[in-house]
Design goal:
It contains eight helices and seven strands; from the N terminus they run βαβαβαβαβαβαααβ. The chain is of the alpha/beta class. It has a seven-stranded parallel sheet with strand order 3-2-1-4-5-6-7, sandwiched between helices.
Length: about 260
């Protein structure tokens, strides 16, 4: 495999100043892509650019919230002005609130908040970038979501339902966008190590700690996936190696659960 097979391609990764989004950006950079990082905080973006420097890839940071259409539209326009047409879009990041919570303990405002922070940041960037991809008749889109969307988990009814919306959107958009040679795929995650989120889960007692401690003890392969392992799957889907893969959701879950839809 040519390790620089993405040479010259422009990749925008939303929510990429830390965690899985950053690891995906780093993996794309190592394959030769020109990288646009995105996040809400400029200081975090500048720090992430410093951590990306070792790849040697041309990289920029554009601040803005992917949950606000006006902001993410401005981000897309700025990236295309600074780096050129977007070839690869990865929608990651977004708020982790509300976290896993038994349904009867959810507050009415949690439902709208989950939609605004877990679903809109996945689809708004796609809508904002679509015009350019349509015009060029090419593009690869990867959405990051949760495996709770495929396998019911106590305390994750709300999280899973917003994730399921993302999975269905992946299928629908892949069918629509095929006429423009644009592929759309999805990566579904479970507990993932080597991330700030992972450390936060186990730093304090409570429902979430108990839920994921139980999951951690049940991985058939003996451990949770790493952020780097997730990133490699996302990069595969974004690359021409997956030229005949579209409308698919791949679970990176270490065998914790099988099946799905």
């Amino acid at each position: 495999m040519d390790k620089k097979d993405l040479q010259g391609k422009v990749a925008l990764i939303t929510g990429s100043t830390s965690g899985i989004g950053f690891r995906i950006a780093e993996a794309l950079a190592k394959r030769g892509a020109r990288i646009a990082l995105n996040g809400r905080r400029t200081a975090a973006g500048e720090e992430a650019l410093g951590r990306l420097a070792h790849t040697g890839a041309e990289s920029i940071f554009e601040p803005g919230s992917a949950a606000r259409y006006d902001e993410i539209s401005r981000v897309v326009a700025a990236v295309e002005r600074r780096l050129g047409p977007i070839d690869i879009l990865v929608t990651s990041g977004g708020s982790e609130k509300p976290g896993p919570t038994p349904f009867h303990e959810l507050k009415p405002e949690d439902f709208l908040k989950a939609f605004e922070t877990r679903y809109l940041p996945r689809v708004f960037p796609v809508h904002a970038a679509l015009s350019g991809m349509r015009e060029r008749q090419r593009g690869s889109i990867v959405l990051i979501t949760t495996d709770a969307a495929r396998h019911p988990t106590p305390g994750e009814a709300l999280i899973g339902s917003t994730g399921a919306a993302t999975i269905l959107m992946t299928k629908a958009l892949a069918r629509e966008f095929s006429r423009w040679k644009i592929r759309v795929n999805c990566v579904a995650l479970t507990l993932t190590s080597d991330t700030p989120r992972y450390d936060d889960i186990f730093s304090k007692p409570g429902f979430e700690n108990k839920l994921f401690s139980k999951a951690l003890s049940r991985f058939p392969l003996g451990r949770a996936p790493t952020a780097e392992e997730v990133a490699q799957v996302a990069v595969f889907l974004a690359s021409d190696q997956a030229a005949q893969v579209t409308g698919q959701t791949i679970s990176v879950n270490g065998g914790l659960s099988f099946g799905g839809w």
